[in-house]
Amino acid sequence: MMSTKTEKVVVVGSGLMGTGIAHAFSASGFATVLVDANPEALVRAEQAISKIFADGIKLGKLDPADAAAAAARLTFSGELPVAARGAALLVETVTEKLDVKKAVIAEALPVLAPGALVATNTSALSVTEIAASVPSPERVLGMHFFNPVHKMKLVELVRGIATSDEAVVTARQYCDAIGKTSIVVNESPGLTTSRMSALLGNEAMYMLQEGTASAEDIDTALRMGFNHPMGPLELGDMTGWDTRLNVLKYLHATLGEKFRPCPLIIKMVAAGRYGRKTGHGVYKYEDGQRVPNSGLKAGI
């Protein structure tokens, strides 16, 4: 059971999600370590978190002293066995591949605190399969955060077949402590939100491919017609179409034909147009900002 915020949290993977999760825990009072084998990725993560703090101060939502204290609680490391030593919670946010996730957890387990909670931020993969590599699978569950983490309040807590009630209670305590609302989902491919989002984004890409409307107009339709904060193509660019493609392939294999990836997504990934992180997806980006009127046109 989680006792105090003096417990150490280790987050593995410094992409958009890992960066946001590390910020959330450090800003909420936890000693947090963000781990990535890529030094350049850690530099980008540190810069991104510093900007979140700076923006909070600028908007009057964060006291400078609190921001400085939160930054002091957050450290960065390229060595997982060192970073994870004594941690009470491990949150892995690495690429959506089972073998990679299992390898990360296996490397960290021997040095975690006794009975530590092991959480995966997977948006579609099987928590039960991930937990199968752990000697105590009852302490493994999914903690699926949403991007951008510092703005999105929801966390899906995903029960694998062996996840204990105690693990769920502890995970809910962590969510409460960092100001998130949690829901509990019994393991199913795509959970609740990823399953719906995958269908929406895939259909939007089919519409773009078929010439139904331009990228800008498809996104505007969802923002203005359904009050979504982002359109499905904008969201795909933010998430990364490589990640979206991996999720769609998994859902297609497990849930059937309606999740077959749109050929345009496959083509974009083959071209390296993953979205914001590569500077080009459905839209183009310069210095992290979208270039106006740069969306793929209808009927491509």
From TrEMBL:
Q: Which GO terms describe its biological process?
A: fatty acid metabolic process
PANTHER family documented for this protein: 3-HYDROXYACYL-COA DEHYDROGENASE FAMILY PROTEIN, 3-HYDROXYBUTYRYL-COA DEHYDROGENASE
Indicate which residues the UniProt annotation says bind NAD(+).
13-18, 36, 96, 101, 123, 147, 277
Q: Which residues form the 3-hydroxyacyl-CoA dehydrogenase C-terminal domain?
A: 192-285
- Record-annotated 3-hydroxyacyl-CoA dehydrogenase NAD binding domain positions: 8-187
In terms of Pfam families, this protein maps to:
3HCDH, 3HCDH_N
**Name of the protein:** 3-hydroxyacyl-CoA dehydrogenase
